[in-house]
Design a protein that fits this description.
Layout (H helix, E strand, L loop, with lengths): L10 E2 L2 E10 L2 E8 L4 E5 H5 L8 H6 L10
Antiparallel strand pairs: 1-2, 2-3, 3-4
């Protein structure tokens, strides 16, 4: 197995890294726990690059809700 950076225990956004998973196309996956409690598997490059910062809960929270019917 190729050498990789140990990200275990580090935090990226809302995700805390747990165990390393399998190697996908030359990139290691990590099992992470989100601050909301959900567990997700994320590519190491997406964690280090800041592309993945939550399980998806942050994206839902960031949506604007207006209360107006059919408004942009």
């Amino acid at each position: 197995m190729a050498r990789f950076d140990n990200l275990s225990g580090k935090t990226f956004g809302r995700l805390t890294v747990g165990e390393a998973g399998r190697n996908v196309h030359g990139n290691v996956t990590w099992t992470c726990v989100c601050s909301c409690g959900n567990e997700v598997t994320v590519l190491a490059s997406n964690l280090r690059g800041g592309k993945t910062v939550s399980c998806g809960c942050k994206q839902l929270e960031d949506k604007t809700i207006h209360g107006e019917h059919k408004s942009p």
